[in-house]
Design brief:
Elements (H helix, E strand, L loop, with lengths): L12 E10 L2 E9 L2 E5 L2 E3 L6 H13 L2 E14 L6 E12 L11 E7 L1 H5 L8 H11 L14
Parallel strand pairs: 1-6
Antiparallel strand pairs: 1-2, 1-4, 2-3, 2-7, 5-6
Length: 155
């Protein structure tokens, strides 16, 4: 049976992101995308069988090499990708990170890891993966941080 686009069940793409701040700078990754080089927090898709917390720890390690320890949830963001029927449901976590040991191999498409101030990130707003990136940083800077037990993993 051939299923066309209009017959598919719509589901948002569940993603996670790590908001990591040290000395007024945020850990950001520069990645190749279909739209060119973009800046993003270490972020990616939830994989089958893992919790949101496990996903953000894994994605941060794969994309930046840093070992992430979530402290809280900054927010849950629902955003449509411009010009498509794709919707992202992003869970943004804030926490601490420990530096990688030795040489690291980053995910395919990641070209650099940067520590940038909010002002440096805002100055490159046209290069952000989505407007949600800046919103997560601003929410974090405004003190929004929900306890991790807000999320219930019922497995």
């Amino acid at each position: 049976m051939i299923v066309n686009h209009t017959d598919r069940e719509w589901k948002p793409n569940t993603t996670v992101a790590a908001v990591i701040e040290r000395d007024g700078r945020f850990l950001m990754v520069e990645e190749e995308t279909a739209d060119g080089l973009r800046l993003n927090q270490p972020a990616g898709h939830l994989e089958h069988g893992e919790t949101l917390r496990q996903a953000v720890i894994r994605e941060t390690r794969e994309e930046s090499g840093w070992h992430f320890t979530p402290r809280g949830l900054v927010g849950v963001y629902l955003a449509d990708r411009a010009g498509s029927d794709i919707t992202y449901l992003r869970f943004a976590f804030a926490g601490d990170a420990a530096a990688p040991e030795g040489a690291i191999a980053l995910d395919e498409g990641i070209v650099a890891v940067h520590w940038l101030t909010r002002e440096e990130i805002a100055a490159q707003s046209q290069r952000l993966r989505s407007p949600v990136v800046m919103q997560c940083i601003d929410d974090y800077l405004n003190g929004i941080l929900y306890p991790l037990d807000l999320i219930r993993d019922l497995r």
